[in-house]
User: Fold this.
Amino acid sequence: MKRMIKLTHTKLLSFLCLLLAVTVLSSCKKDKDERTSQIQLLSYGPTGAMHGDTLRFFGTNLDKVTEVQFTGPSAVVKQSEFKKQDWEELLLIVPEAAERGYVTLKTPQGDIVTKTMLNLSVESTVTQVSGPARPGETVTLTGNYLNWVKSVTFNKNLVVSSFVSQSINKLEVTIPETAQTGRLMIAFGGTDSSATETDTLWVKLPTTTGMTPATVKPGNNLTITGTDLDLARKVIFTGVATPVTTFVSQSATQIVVAVPVTAKKGKLILEAASGVQTTSAADLDMVLPMATNVTPASVNLNGDVTITGTNLDLVRKVIFSGVAPAVTTFVSQSATQIVVKAPAGARKGKITIEAASGVQTQSTGEISVVLPTITSFSPSPVTPGTNLTINGTRLDMVTSVIFQNAPAVNSFVSKSASQIVVKVPAGVLNGKVTLGISNPTDTVQSAQSLEIAGAAPPPTLAVPIYLDEVKNWSGWNGGWGGTKVMDNADPVREGTKSIKINYNAGADYGSPFQLGAGNLSVGTNTTFKLSIYGAPGSNGKAIQVKLNGNSGP
Assistant:
């Protein structure tokens, strides 16, 4: 016989509730029985917390944690300071001294270290910068959260990441040797790394307060007095391209340095390792060579000239009046005397002496240079192939006679101090006579022109386009090769100057000369003529004339 069991809704609900209760009680008993005795850290956070925020730790048996140690000096939270602590949760306040790093939980079973670093959201601030200070000294920054600073950037992007000391409220940094005055850029870490700018750090510089002697002789020692002079790496003199970097002696208050021989009067500049310069308030004056006397009063070319004076050992060049190049080699030289040969081209006038600096001084007296002179010709006009008598003075110095349009004549019928008799070569033209001198090579030209018998004078120019100088013309006067002399004195067609072009057949591609954009009116003229003087060696050469765009041979 089968029995049927019938449950009403009310009884079924009661049964389910009872069953659930039994199940829950059974589960709770099971969890309690399964609780481990091991102290574990499962997680912590939040990431990006700030100092003073609540930090939460989750795990097991956290009620046994006795202390939490953060990275950073004295960054410890004791158990008595926990905000909450139970079996599975621990809450505490992030201490001010906490820095980026691992967190350690102190327990009876040993230390538990977080698997990830704690990073915080911070903002370092600087309230004061010490100074002024010298390179190599320590600058102190005061503020807050300076223990989070990663680097300090000085002016001109000079980065320092190693510090003398670092704490929450103080940062000490050694000033680099090349540091310059300027604001500091402080870079700090944290979840939102950033940077902040400080007030200006004043970096000391070497400063000149005095120089002795005030007038110094190049090559001698100069004593510079001042402050922070041990910071100077270079001393820069006026007129000297290369700074002086080696000193006789150096201290914080004094530098002794040898003055370069090329130094000129002017300010003295000191340069620190940073490249920043300071300039002396006063000029440093230089001793210069002075010529007080020149002997003899009249000297032959290549003869000895004696210059007496002071500081003549500083002289590098002796410059005579005339067109002679500077003399740089002396017979003898001392501080009080120079003996030098009178060079070719020397003429009457004062002597200039030049120091290594390029500064020049001039003698008070003049010297006269003995040269041959021409006083007259006989006969004049003279016929080519006949003898010409040249009268004058010091003609015994002459080694050649040069006529117009003829090679130099080096042999004479006779020669004395007052007269030369020479045979006139064929083909010569009217013009001045040039006397050649040797030892050293030089020339002297006659004041008057020698007339040649049978040489017809050129016709008068109707419209000269060049008379002593180029007037009312512009444009270019260039060419390809050759050299052009715009103020040639001999020969001259009309006036006192002419244009001369020297042509090197072996190297030059023509030697053109051009004048353009002139205002010369030729409306009434029908013929264009020009005369060209061909010097020796020009025979057989072609000349091209181009006028208004038309060329002709």
Helices lie at 9-34. The chain has six domains: 40-113, 125-201, 207-286, 290-364, 373-450, 458-553.
